[in-house]
Amino acid sequence: MNAKLTLKLNQEVIEKAKKYALEKQLSLSRLIENYLNSLTNELKDEGDVKISPFVKSMKTGVKIPTDLDDKK
Q1: pLDDT 10s digits, 6-44
Q2: Is 61 left (phi over 0), alpha (psi -120 to 50) or beta?
Q3: In whole angstroms, what is the distance from residue 48 CA to residue 42 CA?
């Protein structure tokens, strides 16, 4: 369920975030949502690798086939 959130931020930060989101072809809302998710998700067990917020922000939802041959 989506809900509206109003934030007060430094104008320069907003402009930089808009530019970054545009370059990554993300909406500003999606960028902020991804970042907040990365802050609030805890590792399920100690063996998990922690993924940086930047990498998580690039998530596309595209599934890679398990039989993909990357040597081709």
Answers
A1: 999 999 999 999 999 999 999 999 999 988 888 887 645
A2: left
A3: 10
pTM equals 0.54
Distance CA 18, CA 29 (A): 10
Residue type, 16: K
**Domain-wise residue ranges, the chain:** 11-57
Contacts of 59 (CB under 8 A, 6+ apart): 34
- Alpha-carbon distances, residue 16 vs 11, 27, 35 (angstroms): 9, 13, 15
Matching residue, tokens 């040597």? 71
Q: Per-residue pLDDT for 70 more than 60?
A: yes
